[in-house]
């Protein structure tokens, strides 16, 4: 199957002996078949054990669901002493990042940062309305995905002060309101 | 059917405008089938018509021969117009239990103006039954375990449905066949094909393209009753008696049938009836494959920004080529 050609669901892409099945494909018998309609791409293998290239199909519409390990952007909807509820609005995979439907998720107290996790106070890390960059760590329970901000690049990206002004980050734990000069505590994401 | 008490309903009756009654001597001739027994009517199929839904498609079998329309204002035989939207995968509601697979829900509704006698706004038993058959056909094709904790809703609206028999028969008092409901089988075949196009448009993982095909055992001509012949894609108004009919949902690359619904007494023709329905599904798949390919190429060219303005790209999409359905 030539890389770059359009394939339909059910179309055979090659033998399982010569190819691995990547996203957008499924395996039936001894062959790899397409599961979605799109353009097929073949990436050479990066693992030491299998030398065969991986066939994957890019969906024209982009990611549909958050998967474990993907970075997402969301907005805090609710806070508790133990967790912060967040609504996932965008997923960073190839294609259109915006979700058609917001997904409910939460960040637990122990997943906010990597050090001193038992001393974390949610009120000093997140407030309702903050835009947060986080990574999905688990599918969670029936209501929410579980997210983590325990890295330097993860955390609050945009925040509004209590006076209503857009704030700028000044350190890993503080935002500052430019008009009043007051600082507020958040778990701040390192600017890229 | 339960009375719909929440709305002020229109008077029950026909959907065609009232005309002068024709005299009983002047019954117009029954339309006859001019196609070969293994020839399908032309299908129009287009996907991506509803921008706000995850996936959508429109399926139409246009009226075939206009020359039988000379004497009457009432159309001699109905055509088929179905639209489908797919919403999903989207998160399940708050009180739903955790589900490791995709929860597929189908919803089929006839518009009130879809058939010669007006239908209600509330779903009746026949529409719920069609929804169950459609879910059976789609469940065998969707790879559910890739979408945990999500639901997908397939909503089908039939804008014009096939009728069960010729309207002239009802006027003169003869039935259209031993069992009724032949039009619903043609509608189900169209629903399976259009739902498949919409699911692929939404990007949901499918094992193959499933298509619906319908075939029937009809009386051969107006002579004395004999064994009957098997025809593909029957128009119920063109046959004086339909003995049996069968709808299948068929996967061509695996040669598997996901859904089968047979009605009536097929007698000796039972196996060839199923084979003909499978053949009808294969003919419809040719059209579906072409439509899906064109849609992917159109989306890719929009994504790469090779169009100057949005208007010119949409114009190019409108010029679809005719695909010849060969067996």
Main sheet attributes: strand count, strand direction, barrel closure of chain B: 5 strands, mixed
Number of helices of chain B: 5
State the end-to-end CA separation of chain B: 42 Å
Beta-strand share of residues of chain A = 35-45%
InterPro entries (chain A): Csl4, EXOSC1_C, Exosome_cplx_N_dom, NA-bd_OB-fold
Domain Exosome complex component N-terminal (chain A): 7-41
GO molecular function, one term (chain A): RNA binding
Subcellular location (chain A): Nucleus, Nucleolus
Structural features, described:
Chain B: Belongs to the RNase PH family. Chain B: It comes from Meristemomyces frigidus. The complex is a heterodimer of chains A (192) and B (327). Chain A is an all-beta fold and 192 residues long. In chain A, the strands form 4 sheets. Chain A has a 5-stranded mixed barrel with strand order 8-9-10-12-11. In chain A, strands 1-6-7-3 form a 4-stranded mixed sheet, with no helix packed on it. A 3-stranded antiparallel sheet of chain A has the order 2-5-4, with no helix packed on it. Chain B has a single domain, classed as Ribosomal Protein S5, domain 2 (2-Layer Sandwich), CATH 3.30.230.70. Chain B contains 5 helices and 9 strands; from the N terminus they run ββββαβααββββαα. In chain B, the strands form 2 sheets. Chain B has a 5-stranded mixed sheet with strand order 1-2-3-5-4. A 4-stranded antiparallel sheet of chain B has the order 7-6-8-9. The radius of gyration of chain B is 21 Å and the shape is globular. The relative contact order of chain B is 0.15. The interface between A and B is medium-sized, with 29 and 37 residues.
Topology readout:
The complex is a heterodimer of chains A (192) and B (327).
Chain A: E1 6-7, E2 12-15, E3 20-21, E4 25-28, E5 31-34, E6 38-43, E7 54-58, E8 71-79, E9 83-91, E10 98-108, E11 131-138, E12 145-148, E13 155-158, E14 168-171, E15 174-176, E16 183-185
Parallel strand pairs in A: 3-7, 10-12
Antiparallel strand pairs in A: 1-6, 2-5, 4-5, 6-7, 8-9, 8-11, 9-10, 11-12, 11-13, 14-15, 15-16
Chain B: E1 44-47, E2 55-61, E3 80-91, E4 103-110, H1 125-139, E5 150-160, H2 167-172, H3 182-202, E6 210-218, E7 229-232, E8 242-251, E9 256-264, H4 270-303, H5 310-318
Parallel strand pairs in B: 4-5
Antiparallel strand pairs in B: 1-2, 2-3, 3-5, 6-7, 6-8, 8-9
């Amino acid at each position: 199957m030539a890389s770059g050609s359009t394939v339909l669901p059910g179309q055979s892409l090659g033998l399982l002996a010569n190819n691995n099945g990547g996203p957008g494909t499924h395996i039936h018998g001894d062959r790899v078949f397409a599961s979605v309609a799109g353009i097929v791409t073949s990436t050479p293998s990066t693992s030491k054990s299998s030398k065969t290239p991986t066939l994957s199909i890019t969906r024209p519409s982009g990611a549909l669901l958050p998967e474990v390990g993907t970075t997402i952007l969301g907005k805090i909807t609710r806070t508790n002493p133990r967790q912060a509820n967040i609504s996932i609005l965008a997923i960073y995979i190839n294609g259109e990042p915006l979700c058609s439907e917001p997904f409910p998720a939460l960040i637990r107290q122990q997943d906010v940062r990597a050090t001193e996790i038992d001393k974390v106070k949610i009120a000093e890390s997140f407030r309702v309305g903050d835009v947060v960059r986080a990574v999905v760590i688990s599918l969670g329970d029936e209501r929410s995905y579980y997210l983590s901000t325990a890295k330097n690049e993860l955390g609050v990206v945009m925040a509004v002060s209590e006076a209503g002004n857009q704030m700028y980050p000044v350190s890993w734990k503080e935002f500052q309101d430019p008009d009043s000069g007051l600082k507020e505590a958040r778990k701040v994401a390192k600017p890229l | 059917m339960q009375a719909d008490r929440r709305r002020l309903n229109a008077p029950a009756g026909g959907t065609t405008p009232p005309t002068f009654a024709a005299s009983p001597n002047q019954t117009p001739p029954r339309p006859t089938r001019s196609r070969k027994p293994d020839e399908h009517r032309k299908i129009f199929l287009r996907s991506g018509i509803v921008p706000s839904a995850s996936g959508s498609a429109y399926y139409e079998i246009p009226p075939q021969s206009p020359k039988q329309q000379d004497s009457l204002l009432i159309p001699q035989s109905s055509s088929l117009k179905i639209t489908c939207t797919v919403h999903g995968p989207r998160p399940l509601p708050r009180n739903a239990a955790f589900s490791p697979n995709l929860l597929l829900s189908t919803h089929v509704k006839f518009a009130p103006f879809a058939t010669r006698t007006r239908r209600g706004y509330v779903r009746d038993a026949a529409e719920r039954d069609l929804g169950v058959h459609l879910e059976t056909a789609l469940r065998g094709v969707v790879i559910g375990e890739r979408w945990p904790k999500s639901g997908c809703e397939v909503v089908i609206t039939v804008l014009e449905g096939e009728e069960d028999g010729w309207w002239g028969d009802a006027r003169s008092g003869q039935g259209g066949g031993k069992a009724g409901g032949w039009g619903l089988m043609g509608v189900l075949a169209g629903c399976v094909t259009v739902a498949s196009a919409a699911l692929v448009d939404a990007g949901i993982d499918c094992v193959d393209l499933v298509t619906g095909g319908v075939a029937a055992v009809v009386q051969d001509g107006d002579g004395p009753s004999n064994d009957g012949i098997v025809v593909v894609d029957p128009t119920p108004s063109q046959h004086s008696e339909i003995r049996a009919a069968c709808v299948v949902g068929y996967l061509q690359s695996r040669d598997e049938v996901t859904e089968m619904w047979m009605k009536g007494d097929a007698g000796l023709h039972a196996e060839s009836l199923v084979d003909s329905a499978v053949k009808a599904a294969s003919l419809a798949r040719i059209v579906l494959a072409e439509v899906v390919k064109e849609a992917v190429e159109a989306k890719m060219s929009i994504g790469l920004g090779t169009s100057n303005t949005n208007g010119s790209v949409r114009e190019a999409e409108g010029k679809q080529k005719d695909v010849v359905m060969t067996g």
